[in-house]
């Protein structure tokens, strides 16, 4: 399981500062939606320039103009972008077209989707590399929010998924047991007094601890679309010195 | 009926150039979602600085962190922001809280909402100043798209609404007949060889043509929420010289 830090800060400087602290312990660095709206694509470019060996995730939450928005972010340096699961299929297809052009990937964020299991399967067919089982910041603050429901939906869908919403040291083992490919931690890292220590503590012992194989390939399999070539996004990762994994290649289509 | 130009360009320079051409003929200047994601809030600030007498509409399409995102845009100079109708109620309530603090307004964009009539009524209760009956750029390109369906939903909902998707000189009379408060034109203006002439042609003769009253108040009534003070957003507008209306005051809560 990979660890993703969601940088829900609102300035590029704060993002660069946070990324510098936590990069050794995370696989995917996410620029949160408010950060992108506050600073624009230059924030994506700045983070990718500072961390060329990390997967940079632009949480665009695209609802329309899928190809245009995805193209802007990939051109700026993003490796993965999000489209909303509540968006129409043509928006997702447009973003996937841009991803194919750039050799990058689209993640579909299922925030606000009523039937997450069905939509997860649909958008995987459309070419999403994985879906994000996601309870938003506002939703997490509502009474009745439950991480268990999200995990159950991820397990039931049987497609590659990440989990965002309530990931902490107390819950990360359950996230891994449910089969998530990626655990997304936001406040548990950026809200900590020592974000580096918080990220290190979240890193799952069975995933990328020092001592693992010195080099290996990590692939995200997008289910074959009937009218489309199968897409498999992979990157090669190596463990350097005592540091947790550093990915030395960016996403590529196999 | 007001005329809103949706600036679906991706650089602040292009937005400022377009706004300068069309400002005399429009009431509301919209920074499109891709523009905001490309350039950040500095684009909002630049457009408001260049057109302080216009209503500046930041099409944030917020899906989460409603209060934070709305606050960023209002602080940058926006008068109106959008939240998605597919967002949870707590996200809309958060954005409305930010609007109340700043004396500005929230518009709920119904793109992607299956039952637009019901959701329109719900979000108006939550404090939206109006809803946007909206077919996205991707949806308009799909077979079967019909402006008539959108207009019918607006009429049926019986709450203040704008219409976005397919507004042109050929359709704007039907938009006005359906009772829209605002007609949103994008490609019909920015895609025209002469955007100023296109905007002038779209201006409805019965709305803000020269010769109207020299000063008047334009209000958007948000239906009273049971647990909230009634909110009425108004601005005073004057007609100067031969120019169509220029609004001289920004939104304020009555
Ligand atoms: Mg995020
Ligand atoms: Mg727009």
From TrEMBL, chains A, B:
Q: Which keywords are on file for this protein?
A: Carbohydrate metabolism, Lyase
Q: What EC number(s) has UniProt assigned to this enzyme?
A: 4.1.2.43
Mention one GO biological process in which this protein takes part, according to its record.
L-ascorbic acid catabolic process
* Record-annotated Orotidine 5'-phosphate decarboxylase domain positions: 2-202
Give the matching Gene3D superfamilies.
Aldolase class I
Entries under SMART domains matching the protein: OMPdecase (SM00934)
Named from the GO MF annotations, one term is: hexulose-6-phosphate synthase activity
Q: Which reaction does it catalyse?
A: D-ribulose 5-phosphate + formaldehyde = D-arabino-hex-3-ulose 6-phosphate
Judged by the first EC level, this protein's enzyme class is lyase
Q: Where is this region: Disordered?
A: 203-228
Q: In which pathway does it act?
A: One-carbon metabolism; formaldehyde assimilation via RuMP pathway; D-fructose 6-phosphate from D-ribulose 5-phosphate and formaldehyde: step 1/2
InterPro entries from the xrefs?
Answer: 3-hexulose-6-phosphate_synth, Aldolase_TIM, HPS/KGPDC, OMPdeCOase_dom, RibuloseP-bd_barrel
The yes or no answer to whether the keyword Lyase is present is yes
Looking up Pfam families in the UniProt record yields:
OMPdecase
Entry superkingdom:
Bacteria
Q: Which family does it belong to?
A: Belongs to the HPS/KGPDC family. HPS subfamily.
Q: What is this protein called?
A: 3-hexulose-6-phosphate synthase
Organism, as annotated: Cryobacterium cryoconiti
